[in-house]
Amino acid sequence: MNEVAEPVYTEGGAVLLDGNQLRDDTVMQLRARIERAGSPSVCLATVLVGDDAPSRVYVNMKHRKATEAGIESRGVELPASATQQEVEEAVAQLVADPDVHGILVQLPLPDHLDPEPVLALLSPEKDVDGLTDRSLGRLVRGLPGHAPCTPLGVMRLIEAYGIGTVGKRAVVIGRSTLVGLPQMLLLGRKGCDATVTLAHSRTSDLVEVCRSADIIVAAVGQAGMITGEHVRPGATVIDVGVSRSETGIVGDVVFDEVQAIAGAITPMPGGTGPMTIACLLENTVSAAAMLGVTSLSGV
Ligand code: NAP
Question: pLDDT tens for residues 104-147?
Fold first, then answer.
């Protein structure tokens, strides 16, 4: 497990949960692990359909960081006009290819395509995004598999900064299968042992619910919905939500206000986003080990 050597503090005295730093540390550690294993080929394939600009930026970033980690990356691109069958065939080819260890289908797909049958083609080993029914089922049942990268990245931040979870109260705001629901499972599972409340759009008294928490994970996508009044002194506040404003990307948390009260806080950007990529790469190396690159096991 990574540990952050020297925490940086915000002006208000909260520990800054620096996702950029931890991602870079993770990339270097994965690279070292692959080298110790004798530099076997580890390959991540991405599937990008259409020309959505933010999706292309995300995919390019994933390729860049994969290369830094010593992971080969293969980009499959299909035009926005691709049919359901063409996308499914492209994914099926990657599933069948023994040289490919992890597959990431960049979502959202164009409106005319149904992502469910595409994701259903992924084997649990190659589903490094952890988003298929089978991967989520394995997470629920506590079986080996890949957890979704964003909530796993939140767990890696919590671990690296030594934030206690056993017996602590955590509130996860948002209940999607991409973030909130798996986040609840990860925080509440044995070994982590937080007592977790799952809040959503129908939760009454969100302020009160949040004020009872030692750890708040906000995964909604409503800019600035978590203010100082939601946070009890010393709590850890993790911002997953992303909204685009004229000034750039903003999170669900009013950083300036909350950092003066919290004990630890993520920046936005620079917190959970980079950790999502770090965990994609971590899952890819685990996938290679699961798929028989035996030299990676135990190094
Ligand atoms: P989503 O599927 O739209 O889910 C949003 C959740 O927020 C829903 O469960 C919704 O409740 C809840 N919600 C909406 N309004 C609320 C309110 N006023 N109070 C409490 N809960 C409320 O979104 P998602 O895919 O989980 O993503 C959440 C956010 O994280 C988005 O901004 C997304 O862009 C961002 N994200 C960031 C990263 C990263 O790497 N940092 C990765 C993935 C996603 P209901 O279920 O009741 O509708």
Answer: 999 999 999 999 999 999 999 999 999 999 999 999 999 999 99
The model scores a pTM over 0.90: yes
What DSSP state is assigned to residue 125?
T
| CA 184 to centroid of ligand 1, rounded, Å | 13
The alpha carbon torsion through 93, 66, 19, 47 (nearest 10 deg) reads -30
Take residue 274 and report the two structure tokens written for it: 């980079």
For the domain made up of 38-125, the CATH class stated in words is alpha beta
Kindly report, residue by residue over 219-236, the tens digit of the pLDDT. Answer: 999 999 999 999 999 999
Q: List every span in the chain annotated with CATH 3.40.50.10860.
A: 38-125
Nearest ligand 1 atom to the CA of 221 is 32
